[in-house]
Amino acid sequence: MKNKIKKILNKTISKKSYQNLALFYGLMKTFYVSTFFKTRRFININNGGFKIMIDPKNGYTDKMLYLERSRDKYVTDVLDKYLTKGSVFVDIGMNIGYETLWGAKIVGETGKVISFEPLAFLVEQVKESLKVNSFKNVEIVNKALGTKEEKLK
């Protein structure tokens, strides 16, 4: 849809006007998020079949999910293609759990998702999402993964 609009605008307005319009659109999205997204909440994910907890304090990912109700279509297309009921999926760097929840939905009760996230507040946020969706097939490991063992500052 955005590409169709862009093609129409490119034919009817100047490049400078299009840039101003894009800037205005960005500012409107920022205004909308800062005005209406002030508290933690669950949202339904488009085509995901699950809810996810988002928090305005987390930053970009949560704010974009608030606006778009979806994220990383390429990644979810890959998950849809390769995961099946009963699969095991490992999410390294779970963040707010978007891919973890998507994977949990696909692999079902006979599958398993193992997710790694070092930040405790994100782990707790994802646990809320797991509970509201009744996903019991996810194991969260509150650790970072890397090439060497060390304590993060």
Description:
- This protein is of the alpha/beta class.
- The protein is 50% helix and 14% strand.
- It has helices at 2-12, 15-36, 60-68, 73-82, 98-107, 120-133, and strands at 41-44, 51-54, 88-92, 112-116, 138-141.
- Strands 3-4-5 form a 3-stranded parallel beta sheet, with helices on one face. A two-stranded antiparallel ribbon has the order 1-2.
- Helix 4 (73-82) runs parallel beside helix 5 (98-107).
- The longest helix is centred in the first third of the chain and has 22 residues, at 15-36.
- The model has no long low-confidence stretch (mean pLDDT 89).
Topology of helices and strands:
Blueprint: H1 2-12, H2 15-36, E1 41-44, E2 51-54, H3 60-68, H4 73-82, E3 88-92, H5 98-107, E4 112-116, H6 120-133, E5 138-141
Parallel strand pairs: 3-4, 4-5
Antiparallel strand pairs: 1-2
Helix pairs in contact: 4-5
